[in-house]
Amino acid sequence: KAGVTQTPRYLIKTRGQQVTLSCSPISGHRSVSWYQQTPGQGLQFLFEYFSETQRNKGNFPGRFSGRQFSNSRSEMNVSTLELGDSALYLCASSLAGSTKSTDTQYFGPGTRLTVL
Amino acid sequence: SQELEQSPQSLIVQEGKNLTINCTSSKTLYGLYWYKQKYGEGLIFLMMLQKGGEEKSHEKITAKLDEKKQQSSLHITASQPSHAGIYLCGAAPTGNQFYFGTGTSLTVIP
Fold this sequence. Notes:
The structure holds two protein chains of two kinds.
Chain A: E1 5-7, E2 10-13, E3 19-24, E4 31-38, E5 42-50, E6 53-57, E7 64-68, E8 74-78, E9 87-94, E10 106-107, E11 111-115
Parallel strand pairs in A: 2-11
Antiparallel strand pairs in A: 1-3, 3-8, 4-5, 4-9, 5-6, 7-8, 9-10, 9-11
Chain B: E1 4-7, E2 10-14, E3 19-25, E4 32-37, E5 43-49, E6 55-58, E7 61-66, E8 71-76, E9 85-91, E10 99-100, E11 104-109
């Protein structure tokens, strides 16, 4: 089976712009979670989608949004970019969900976003 | 995150040495995951522990879960340069959000 894929791998934007990141989960997985990783804050949960519905949301401003399509592919959007949004954005897929203790999340390679 | 604290923050060991990384939760653990990350890359799943007292091994890496102490440990025997990276524990102690530990950076000197 193919693993989790993320596109693009690298992105450079300027403050005020918006960006859309894409994540394709492992075939058969219906849950996709997004995480932000920065040197200062570590890995932080953004949100999780399951069967096209947002199931959980982390503590991030409304500028961060996402959606999931019927084929389980997910996109994450960040509007009005700020310098502090520079980070590695990781998505993970699982069968039933990130908070199900019997399930396992598998991660993509990440998208490195740099905001200038 | 404050939900999961890892120690030590970083480790530098000589090849062949054993080492232990700890992950402590502020809440009851109903399952704990260990991942490894090469710098700037995605996370690689290592192991999942579901029950208190459970111990799992994969190659030279062993992980244990102590539910009473709300703690897990990851032990690497006879470390190799290929073990270098960042080790992260993760769990969903509140049931509505997945948290990662603060991470442990491991350097193995040949």
